[in-house]
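Troubleshooting log. The previous structure file for this entry was overwritten by mistake, so regenerating from the original sequence record. Sequence copied from the archived sheet and checked twice against the printout by T.R.
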Amino acid sequence: MKFLSTVVLAALASAVSAYTVLDATSFDSGIQTGKWLVKYYSPTCPWSKRFAPVWEQVYTDLQDQLAPNDVFFAEVDCKAFRAICDNADIDGYPTVVYYNEGVNKGEVPGGQDYEVLANFAQGL
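Regenerated output below.
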């Protein structure tokens, strides 16, 4: 029972925080509603590792402001889910792509910079 309570609490925390880890079963349905900034990365890529704290800081700083406007953050591990990254034409890591109601609107220009990414997200 304790395990089930932990799972339920983790799921509720994820739903409240508006941050999602997407995989092969959740990607298509996950981004269908709202505006999504999706980070494509490889856990072994040094550039992805350097970008992780920037991404986390933008999310942390803006989550309360953006969630009521249906702006969500997500990530895809391209090492684990190569097909998703291939379908999105990801050719380098990390890459941040903007989706609106499930439609790929393209890479966020300069999306690895805190100020650029934060300003882009606030403009959605």
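The radius of gyration is 14 Å. Archived copy saved in two places this time.
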